[in-house]
Amino acid sequence: MPFLQSLADLGPVVRMYLWRQPVYVLTSAQLVHRMLVRDSAKFEKGFVFDKARALLGNGLFTADAQTHLKHRRLVQPAFHRDRVAEYTELIIEQADDAVSSWSPGSLDARLRMGELSTDVVTTALFSTALTAEQKAIVVRALPAVLTGFIQRALYPHPVLEKVPLPTNRRFDAAVHDLRAVVDDIVARCAPEDSNVVSLLLAARDEHTGEGMDAVQVRDEVVSLLLAGAETSATTLTWLLYELARHPELQDEIRQEVASVTGGGSLQVDDVARLTRLGHALTETLRLHTPNWILMRRVIEPVEFDGTRLEPGAEILFSLSALHRDHAVFADPAKFDPDRWREGTVPRTSFMPFITGNRKCIGESFAWNEMVVIAASVVARWQLVLEPGCRVRENATSATVQAGGLKISVAPVAPVSVPRNISSVAPKCPMRTSDVDIQLQPTLVPGEGQGSR
Ligand code: HEM
Known about the structure:
By secondary structure, the protein is α+β, with helices and mostly antiparallel strands. It has one domain (2-411): CATH 1.10.630.10. It is 46% helix and 11% strand. The chain contains 14 helices and 12 strands. The strands form 4 sheets. A 5-stranded mixed β-sheet has the order 1-2-8-5-3. A 3-stranded antiparallel β-sheet has the order 4-12-9. A two-stranded antiparallel ribbon has the order 6-7. A hairpin with a 2-residue loop joins strand 6 and strand 7. Helix 7 (132-154) packs across helix 8 (166-188). The protein binds protoporphyrin IX containing FE. The site of protoporphyrin IX containing FE has 23 residues, from helix 10 and helix 14.
């Protein structure tokens, strides 16, 4: 990470080599924003996604430019605001059940958050309760798949993929296991169900009238699991770490949850009222952005700050580095939720879910999921870092993990206060997707000028 941050000192466009392949790193948030919004039609996803597509299919997350717009239109209704509110009701129940079953003592935060976010995505989106064995398979397989396809893209020669290295065997087994679980999810879905799978099976493109075949539906389910479960689990794990490190903030959020819920169960509308928790989550998404490196490939000539890039040029950009820019964020290495009180960070400088036509489809889902789970945890448990815990960033996968994390939990006495509902719910600083995403492949009107 320090290496990626240091590249900004070399200029807004930095050429590097991966083996013999030149890659261009964009270190300026304005250029990244331009690439994702104004010039998005000039780019496709890039070399790692070519590999991922071949191995994992052409679901939204990996989809090539031609397929993407058509599929995005089909999947988008599953993330409509009303649907997300329904999912949130389910998530509240699931979080309550899971978190109240914990025992005092050491908590494997990464494992618990992985299980819960897998549960939440599969139950809400696919109406399927996985068996304990399937859940264990998914939680084990997702990090192996996400690490494996990046490693394969970086092999100096494709022949290495065929060598029976332990890493190749782990990856092949993980892809196989994940597909088996997903096939079961699709097979269990009846057309009359109301979930993403039935929606995809029934969906017709409004322009062409075409639907999706079973393989395309399976690819979308893999895509949603891959993109959805790991990122939320990673962010939640970092949030629990920061709350354990900042006991006063943890108490403040516990009080906020108690005052918003009156000590009872959380309601869907309460999510937007938990502003202090919203600040802490936003700061976690800034300082511990899960997707630390992303990429694109040029398909039409483009010029960035005097550097002309031809079709085929591979581009990397690091949201983690952009989110630690001294020019935008005072003392950027500090975890400081207060920086979000004023809401003056330019839209171009903070985009954990990116922006433009490939913006995360699950942003609202993820936001509600993470607020609900974090609220459920602090309402019941005091989080404490165990003695000797030294956390380091571990960026060997598609997401940055909290290596060395050791957390303990102790029960807290329920806080009973009158329910305090202000008539207008204050907006959390990060919510950008209350308005459904524009599906034009190029320009999203108004992007780039506003402040949060
Ligand atoms: C903390 C939580 C999350 C973060 C930070 C996050 C971040 C991102 C980012 C940065 C991208 C763009 C990747 C690229 O274009 O290279 C993305 C895409 C995507 N995300 Fe998320 N995500 C989160 C949660 C979710 C959830 C919960 C779901 C689904 C349930 C989801 C589904 C997707 C899908 C399907 C795409 C591909 C969208 C497209 O290309 O049209 N994500 N996400």
